[in-house]
Amino acid sequence: MKITLIVFFILAISCCLYLGNAENPVGYAKQDIKKQTSKTVLLKPSYKIVRDMNKQLESIENQIARIDEISTEMKKMVENLKSALAARKSYPENKMTAKLKQLQDLDTKIQMESRQYNSISNALKVMHDSEMAAIRNMK
Prior knowledge:
Elements: H1 2-21, H2 30-138
């Protein structure tokens, strides 16, 4: 809506400038030409304003286009991050579960070996103590 109004305003001023700068058409008196030149003088600053507005409008359109490009790139980056995060969540959980199972199996084996060692050690100690007691009783 705003852009339409700006374009209409620019066209209206362009038409005024064209009519103000036109050569003497057939049927115009010198007074009419003087009136037109005075109108032209009044419209010249408006032409500068329109030109500046066109530059600003062009700059704004360029900025909007750049923002659209950046938002598209950011959407792609967000999608890539989401997919990477989903892959990372599923992959390490499986890997961690496997590693945790290996650690638990290793811990179970160590505990079993420790029990076996303690059992053998206790049995040997009992045998040693009984042999020592037998030797002491002989004396």
